[in-house]
Amino acid sequence: MSGFTISRRTMLAGSAMLLASTAMPDTGWAQTPKKGGRLVLAADSEPRNLNPAIVASNGVFFISSKIVETLAEASFDGKDGLAPRLALSWEGAADGLSVTFKLRDGVKWHDGKPFTSADVAFSALQIWKPLQNLGRTVFKDLAAVETPDDLTAVFKFAKPTPFQLIRNALPALSSVVPKHIYEVGKIEDNPANNAPIGTGPFKFAEYKAGQYYRLTKNADYWGKDEPYLDEIIYQVLPDRTSAASALEAEEIQLAAFSAVPLADLDRISKVPGLKVISKGYEGLTYQLVVEINHRRKELADLKVRQAIAHAIDKDFVVKTVFLGYATTATGPVPKNDPQFYTADVPTYPFDVAKANALLDEAGYKKGPDGKRFTLKLLPAPYFNETKQFGDYLRQALAAIGIDAQLVNNDSAAHIKAVYTDHAFDLAVGPPVFRGDPAISTTILVQSGIPDGVPFSNQGGYKNDALDALIAKASETLDTTARTDLYKEFQKEVAADLPLINVAEWSFISVARDTVGNIANNPRWAVSNWADTYLAG
Amino acid sequence: MTRALILLRRRLIGSIFVLLIVVIGTFLLLEAAPGDAVDAYIVSTGGDAGMIELLRHRWGLDQSELTRLANYLWALLHLDLGQSVTFSRPIRDVILERLPNTLLLMVSATALSFGLGSALGIYAGARPGSVRDRILSIGSLALYAIPGFWLGLVLIVVFAVDLRWLPIGGIEALASDKTGLDRAADIAIHLVLPVAALGFIYLALYLRMMRAGMAEVWRQDFVLAARAKGLSRRRIVLAHVARNALLPLVTMLGLQSAQMLGGSVVIESVFSVPGLGRLAQEAVAARDTPLLLGIILVSAVLVVVINLLVDIAYAFLDPRVGAGEANA
């Protein structure tokens, strides 16, 4: 995994420096961490609920991961891609019915009370399993959490649950919140949801709606000498152009999650003192996917789906829509996933002639106006890139005689139209790969999901062989066997095309040269920033 | 005084109907928009069927539209604006937090556009057809044609990014301990660019109205009489022509207040000002119906009050608007 930084200084310093900077996990220039300072960064949204145990989403983690910690965090070099946080070790039983966590000693909550296994048991049983958006699926068979002592938590499952899945879910799904705060009253209404209390390197200090969030240093943090920063301020900048201006005006020092639009990166990378970093998001891969409504007679035909796949020039999409900040996709697991990805799947090289031939074969001949049939195309509005790809797809389909009519909605209307009303033929969606296909990937193609569930198979697709494969993988305990099943899953999806995977991308950070220890883990923007510092 | 009171009473009764229509209309419009607050929420979280059902129930979205409208109106009767789904806080608090910022922005921008606009209008209208008149007319037209957000972005690039004279946005310095005069000065500095962006757009309107009004008044007999009396040109311009040309501008001031509120949506986003306009935009995106209703209600009250004040001012400024007419 090589880093990727651009700044004028890097360019001037020559290739030797370039090599050195890309080889080091730390892309900062000043090498000795310095204590103190206030880091100001851009935030483009204001999550209503800051409790990451209830809402496991990047928008919430971005702020609350500094306050509330998980059992383990993703890591570039740790065993199984994990680094310990609140848990020091985790061990799965061979029968898949229990997982034992050994917890860190001497950890205190921000209010001074000690952190114990009771907090883990409470978070898992009272929050992750019944309330958390992702935990409701992954921890559905969690029956009990035994706490033989203050530093041991044993998760007991009612049905065998693959340890690999639990392990892969730890970075995003295992935020631990204090039992003594949450056991009083209704968890959803707890005031701590808006002013979180955790064990993390930073304490929640203040939120001014529409202006900023302020976090301050936790002097009692368990990490030695950490955190380095005194304060973190998230400045709310709703306008797409604000973050770049604020960076240039030196009002903020960091803009993560592509707050600076791709089109501005080239210009901003030439501003002295600013660096563009595309590393630190490997664990947050978004997939550009064409969702297909199989209720449409034409789209139920595999030949038509293959034709559409052949009509898309993925390299062109990566180059023009993503300006190179993406890679082409082959299937439902992204190429950068270290555990599950396989390249051994059917592929659909860009070939307009072949696409036209397939459509002819399927019996959809071109009419006198050069059109075969008309489709309704709904690009998701959440990202510039999904909208732009919608425009591209319309042109690509026109080239093979399919008349795609674009329907542009805002987010709420798009969610309703695609996932509840099924009022689409093709949609462009950005599902997230969360480190394990069972967390949020298999649901994209599995049948039998109720109407209204977002980011799931709402295209009426049903493939018994694929459903059986997904069911089998979900109860296979052996890591190698389970991984092999998901490789088979990728093959089957790429062959039958319930949806078409086009590209994979992640986010870009832009920072001042003075910000150190950026991008040193695969979920950096949503990790705890205990070692982040400001030089000079 | 009775004249103003009669006007006030008549306006208040009319306003209640206006506000009721605004509330019901907005509610129905939002209901017609596809997707509800839960749809908007799960965009960033995802979730299974059970969780979605739970949320709809918690936020009261499983009730029928009529029930919700009736509940809302009933609460409104008790002056309760309800609870925001987005902020999980009383809407009254959320709005009160933002209202001063929007008012500050609007009042300053209005003062800028009205004050500078009419002054320049007088300057241009004093000598119709002169070089300065033409330069001002063309200049103001150019300003009027510029979209607000673009003007805002240009101001940011020039004064905040390149020259670094002014902050790029926000209403005050982040997490500072400033109080009293220091804080007021800090807010004033933060307001310079947004006020300029919002004010300059409407400046042209007042300038051109003032100028056109003056050209009109110049031809009136009383101006000829004033000239025949041997008054100085300066006195004729200020005391006779400009004063009479000013009246339509006052009417415009009231009408423009609603436009200003609309314009502040864009300006508040570009300059990250935590105001009502930006809040309204967020409320629509989040399908936070009660919050949007609250904002629209407050805005409508604001516009009604401003127009009432303008009417009262008008009644005093122009003796021709008598009590008899106010009753008509």
Low-confidence stretches of chain A: 1-30
Give the end-to-end Cα distance of chain B, rounded to a whole number of Å.
Answer: 17 Å
Tally of individual helices of chain B:
13
What is the residue-averaged pLDDT of chain B? 86
Taken as a percent bin, the fraction of beta residues of chain B is: under 5%
Helix content of chain B: over 70%
Mean pLDDT of chain A: 92
Mass-distribution shape of chain B: globular
Assembly type of the shown chains?
A: heterodimer
Major β-sheet profile of chain A: 7 strands, mixed
Q: Over the alpha carbons, how many angstroms does the gyration radius of chain A reach?
A: 24 Å
Which class of secondary structure composition applies to the elements of chain A? alpha+beta
Strand content of chain A: 15-25%
Distance linking N and C termini of chain A: 29 Å
Radius of gyration of chain B: 24 Å
**Largest interface by residue count?**
A-B, 60 and 52 residues
Form type of chain A:
globular
Summarize the main sheet of chain B.
Answer: none
Low-confidence stretches of chain B: 323-328
Protein name (chain B): ABC transporter permease
Subcellular location (chain B): Cell membrane
Membrane topology (chain B): Multi-pass membrane protein
Keywords (chain B): Cell membrane, Membrane, Transmembrane, Transmembrane helix, Transport
